[in-house]
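note to self: the first set is below, dont mix up w the second
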Amino acid sequence: MSRTTTEGASTSKARTRLLNTAARIFYTEGIHSVGIDRIIAEAQVTRATLYRHFAGKEQLVLAYLEQADQAIRGQVAAAVADNPAPADQVRAIATAIADTIKSSGFRGCAFLNAAAEYHDPAHPVHQAVLAHRQWFLDTVTHLLAQAGCTPADAAARHFAMLRDGAMAAGCLFDPGLITQTFLDGVEDMLKLRGASSAQA
């Protein structure tokens, strides 16, 4: 392995360690309460290393949200790939959300949490939250339209509100009860909006 390759691998590992450390702390403790020095210390890197990869804390926060966005996109893609019927795809997405809520260390929705800390609609972090939510809403709207729900945009907003409520309550009350209520709500919504029992 050449020196350049070795240095590139080392740089990549340092960035990954920084991002994973920041993501863990931001998610469990909040964003504004965490300083750069804490992240540097826990990631075991130098300040120069951090600024080599991220222009500042804001860039690190945006990278954290991008990582969360990609994870959710992967979760949704897997749910869609594993189920041929659009209504079942929506159910699978709901089940994946329920599983997240019941997982160890769940602290709510990373995007709702970030939005609560960044109120200015023009702020890049707030914009990243809105972009993620628009993608999610567009994705669910498309699936619900394919499932025969009418109007699909209203059904998608219904689904998103059920999800938001479950995410908010899931770290405050019994996650088993919350997720069952959420899944029941999704099923009721599908029936109310006229989802077909099966789609090709």
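second set (the one i keep forgetting abt)
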Amino acid sequence: MSARTVPVIALFGSSDHTDVAEALGAEIARRNCILLTGGGRRVTGRAVTESGLDGAEAARRDDGVVAARIGVLGRRHTRVLVDVEDEETKIVLGLAVGDRRNYVNARLCDVAIALDGGDGTKSEVAFCLALGRPVVLVGPRWRDEFPVTRSKTEYDLFVRAAQRRVPVGAADELDRLITDAYDQLGPDASSDVVHRSLDTPPSELVTEAEEAAGRVGPVGAFPELRDPARALVAETYATWLTTVDERLSAARTA
């Protein structure tokens, strides 16, 4: 049983809603929760990942909050690494696993807020559902792509979109975990999912995410990848998480 008390809230989505993502990143930081999103920056433009991090960093600068952030590097990063930055308030994890990092994102979080997105976002949501993480779906496209009442056909289309980005493989431990996750998905599986509009205030969305995280408890954890390089990343992450949880817990009760 984890001793962690502060929720890890993941923020997923495409580049279409950067303003919403920035506001959510700031709100998550002000609540003294832990923000999880992508760790890298695009060559051009901004995505939800960068915007969420920017919002949290702005809240840290302007409001003096801890703004704990987890970034998981994606497809372009080919080196296993772990960096602790910003006075130990931010950790960047590189596992050199390409788009399979979407599964890792789902494993690390306790709850996710997912803005409208493409196949990558759908894969992150699919893994969250398979692993029992609650999800707050934000934006109009989710009404069609993952409706409240789903037929088997609609569910299969959603899962196939996720598999286009993160296909089933058989190469290593992570592939086996991903295959197991897909096997857990089905239209009759129970899921903690709510739909909200883009104009829902960020404070309400984060409150909903916090409450959902409270229902499942601190379930987020690093996947068991036993090769030495990734085991070192997991060890460093666990130490960082314990330290930042203590700081955030003190801030939440102050």
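remember for set 2: Residues 120 and 165 are 6 Å apart (CA to CA).
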